[in-house]
Amino acid sequence: MSQWVLRGLKTGIKSTPYPARAEAAAGISPGYPVMTRYPGATARAVAGVCPTAALKDVGDRVEVDYRRCVHCYRCLRATETPMKWEPGFERSTLNAGGRVLDGAFERSVHILVVDAGDCGACLNEVRQLDNPYYNMHRLGFFITPTPRQADVLLVVGPVTDPMRVPLQKAYDAMPGPKCVIAAGACALSGGVFGPSFAAGSGVAGTIAVDVEVPGNPPPPLAILHGLLVATGKR
Amino acid sequence: MSAVSPREIECAKDELPGVCARLYADESCGFAGLIVEERGAEWELRYVFYRAEAPGWVHVVQRSPVSDTVFPSISARVPAADWHEREAEDLFGLKFSGHPYLGDFVLHNDLWQEGLCPMRKGFDAAKPVLKREPDPHWKPRRIVHAPGAFVMPVGPVFSGVTESAHFQLETVGEDVIRAFPRLFYKYRAVEKIAEGRPLEHALLLAERFSATTAFAHALAFCLAAERIAGIEAPPRARALRVLLAELERLRHHAGAIQEICESTGLAVAASQAAILEEDLLRISADFCGHRYLFGLAAVGGLARDFLDGACRNCVSQAGEAGKRLDRLEKMLRTSSSFLDRLEEVGAVALEDARRFSLVGPIARASGLARDLRKAQPYCGYEAFAFDVPSEGEGDGYARLRVLFAEARQSLRIMKQASTAIPHGPVRAAAALTSSGATLGWIEAPRGACFHWLRVSPDGAIERYRIVTPSFINWRGFHFAVEKFAFQDFPIMLASFGLSAAENDR
Amino acid sequence: MGIGALLAIFTALCAGGMVLALFVPDRRNPEMLAAVGAAASAVLLIAGAGALLGGLAYSAQLWTMPGIGPLRVSVDRLCGLFLIVTALVYFPVSVFSAGYLRRYAGRYSLRAFSVMYLGLFFSIVLILIAGDVLLFLLAWEGMAILSYLLVNYEHKEELHARAGYLMLAMGEGGTLASALALLVLASAAGALDFASLKQSASGLGEPQRWMVFLLSFFGFGVKAGLVPFNSWLPRAHPVAPGNVSAILSGVILNLGIYGIARVNADILVPASTLPGLIVLAIGAISAFIGILYATTENDLKAMLAHSSIENLGIVAAGFGAGLVFMASGHPAFAAIALLAALYHMTNHSIYKALLFLGAAVVDSKAGTRDLDRLGGLIRPLPWTAFFFLVGALSISAIYPFNGFASEWLTLQALLRSVELPSTGVKLVFVLSGALLALTAALAVTCFVKAFAMGFLGMSRSGHAAAASEAGRSMLWPMGMLAALCLLLGVLPTYVTGALDRAVEPLARASAAQALVPAFFSGSPGHSELPAQFAAEFHELGAQTGESVAPGPGLVMLHRGGESNPVVFAMSTTYGFVGLAALLALVAGIVLWLTRGRRVTRNVRWDGGVRRLLPEMTYTATGFSNPVRVIFDAVLRPLTVEDTKETVAEHFRTAIRRTRHDVHVIDRYVTAPAAACVFWIALTAARMHHGRINAYVAYVLLTLVVFLILAAVS
Question: Can you tell me the ipTM of this complex?
């Protein structure tokens, strides 16, 4: 067994310096489109490229509804008037009236992850949060399998019909104070799947959402940023 | 890619079981799936069989007027058709006489009422189903009759970060006698919401319904669409497609290895594998912009081009990760406590693998060495030199060895693909709108995957049927989970590496 | 009032009750029974207390049987103790019967029940106060027959007849053996009364001593439910009515201990350690086998029956240790061991009666005794559940209830074996002690299973869901017994004081003196630690702090001997007070801290299943399955069938598993013995071949044999 100890020691520390300092490695995020200025008619054409209506033309510019962007890159590639895309991942927002867990939750927040029908990518990104690169334990975030000990409910997926009751049950079973984070385009707007008879249009249709983390899927650092927003550290 | 036209056999309803049984009796023949289409006034049931030798594809087609919804079940002779018939019964309302257990499959009986049939043409998928009549007397299906036996429910919300699926473990208290997975908690009706939409939108669906193998599904969809349109992707696109597909396979296998190590509790190995998976995700994003390769596959080729230097850089980075993967494998093979937990756990016999036409690393670990890249080459795979590794025991350790070996082969293909990428366009000229129906197939990281596409003259999807490797392999999970101890259950789940999202669609 | 007068009142009450039962209408009989039974028990309690605590001995001569001699009655302290225990059990069970017996109205004769019940009461008391062999045996037979009739009360059920018959048959076999033992003693003494037996017992030779010991131990052991003659007990309990089960376990099993104690500790004092070791070993093995089968048993009453075997095994183990100490010249330790045995016997009567009454309520309200079909009864039956929980805690020897005190004392007594010289003896003690420790652990498992599967969780059957709480006449007796469980556990020093008076004449030393030193007993002038005691403490290297003695009689402590000079102490009283105070303090702090908060109640978390059904919850079989698997070598299931009926081979439609267990004693003792008897009978039956010529020849043969005998002698 000593080979594992030696291997671990040789690998060293891989943790990202985020959030103390910025993380600049390559490939940590797919990037996000940002507001781009275009004259009226072009703006309309640019906005029309988006298959999920994430782009809105507001007169002289095109705004981005991050809840709806599914990272199809059509606004970047499939047109002569592309939208500007920026790297980075800090796009999580706190909803008005959303609950922030600060104070007593400074060093220890327990997260229950509920998969309400996601495609597997969002869940995989959440799984990466525990790998040596992101290492969320150093920030006091822990995953728990039971809602009774959870403070944060992290939901991915558009909330398919069969998962509606389990999601509601998980939320009800959590003792207060609790905070709900919806991560991913599906969880925020249904993505490409909802609304339909089988899938909903996001978590907000079932339980109230406090923090929104956009992306398809949101990279682990974006989810981490969302957790920091939920605990008032960002 | 050669145009492969399947041999179609049309037969009468009562001959159906016999014809299918005769085809399936050939040991090298696999059952791809059952495709049900409601074409106006008649049903068209298409049973797809495939094999390595000619003829590669045999479609047994059965046509019946729409009013006649009773068909003979072939599951007794072709066990692999079991879940296909159950899905057809739930979604289309067809009855397969002779099938011992229909119902409560995709649409759970304690959630939806009988007779919903959402895949019928008259059903409006956009509206939520408001009138519900779930079965008030629903009870879990029990097979064990013993005094004091009970059903231990696991899920749908269970463990740490796992996909939602429900398992009913029947036990008398000490060991689990059998486990019954109850899936389709993540049913998003992808096949239904694709109908009537243009090809580009359906491509989005294909990419995103099981995003951990997004590129593979998108590629299968594009291959089918290209065959319908009669166009072929240019050579540069083919080479890059192979590169991207193998990159995805490498990354997926690193993730699967990480899950196996984590389930056995070997923390350092799990961390090492997690580092590898994250490295490969970052390599993917650095190369093409998205960690899971979204937005690359397009009908006719690829949506964007890459610099040759960038390709070589990507492959060399992946090669370095591959070396670390080899080192991890060497270390794991000498950790006896780790192997103790994997060996002889969740074994699937070759006979069962063959009868249920299991696919992918799981089937290859049981000795069923089928790989569509060799048997039915697509996208130029016939030009690449690689092996298809297989093992014999079919237990967790065999599956792990297959994963490592396949990762090595993927790297080998990637190196070949990146050395001499042909020059030229990366996307074929826009196709004339054409209609038709065909099967697209691909060897996805989890196994063989079949996309059946029917496009109507106005360019909209008429029928989109996806037979995923997880759908095929979850049926094989039943055999692995008989008479085991509770604590082996997460290890079995991890060593199978199946995706509920891919199965549920 | 003298004991004789009290006993006369008791007899009058019983006889009067039996006569009254015939005149009172059938439906009102239970209330009459309750009243008379309670009154008689109260009188008996006073009589017993007088004999034990007051030190009043009583001896009288009843009428003289022609040709045999006078029938004697004698009440001494040991007898007084058993009378108290009997009364303490009979009182609540009688009150309980008022409500419980209503379920038999119209189906069986309640008059007959009252007559048999009071008759049984009388015969039990007669056994305890009997002063000579004949009265003892007469009363014993009366008790055997009446208890058979009561156990077989629901005689219309086929199964019940067989169980009752087995009890009667094995009981008679035991009676025969014990009668032989008493007769051997009587023939050595030349008289029948116990006093003369005691006087002449010391003159018995070695083989006679052994014969008396073996016959009396195994003979009375049948009644006490000791291995290897316990097969009748788990079969008799489930078929008997609930209140009869309580009597059977709480009183009648004690009669076996009384018989063993009377013959082997009182009349015939052991000369060597071997008899005591045999008793100890049998006791430990009984305890283990009893609790093992209790843990894997699903029928509530059969489980309690197996548990009785376990507890009586612990009593026998303590008793055996006492005999060994008596034979090796350590009277103080013998006294402690005998005290522990009698304490445990008392405790067992109380909490087993409580548990059986609780099981009777469950059986009559939920309609089933099968733990796999009960569940969730705590909501409809809150008080029954609470009292059953107290009983379960007591029997699992959980502090601060009475089981803890007596098991602590028993194990302490076994630990005293370090003082004994012989290695072989020490080995037996150590092994028995280990087996008793294993038993204690299994007992906790067993009763966690019983309480959890029976009362907690979801109802597993419609009956369990439709239950309703028992009436007050059934709850008050259980409450009284539960209160007794707590009192006997929290005030052990007073109990030891009382029991010591019964033990002292047997062991010829005072256990209470050894366990509760004089300066603790509150006698005037002893408020400080005496100098000698403080000096002993300093010898051991301990400090004594303030030299003030704790309150009177609330700490049990004793010092080990030469080779083991440590002090063992236990104070359940102080501990209980401290625990209660701590709980109150913590509760107060929590309530104050959360005074403004709102408490929300939520459904249990079940992983998000849509509806949690009873078949998705653990069954009693599942809970105890690990124990079954671990002790597979002992339990040895005979067949485990695992058939799969499949359609087309890959659709599994059914997997059937059946398990057939035969009790280990039945396998190795009862079944071979029965087979042997049958073989003898079949061989002898060859005589009956129906030919009249042969029968005439038999007559001739017998005549010839007698002529020869007459000629020879």
Answer: 0.93
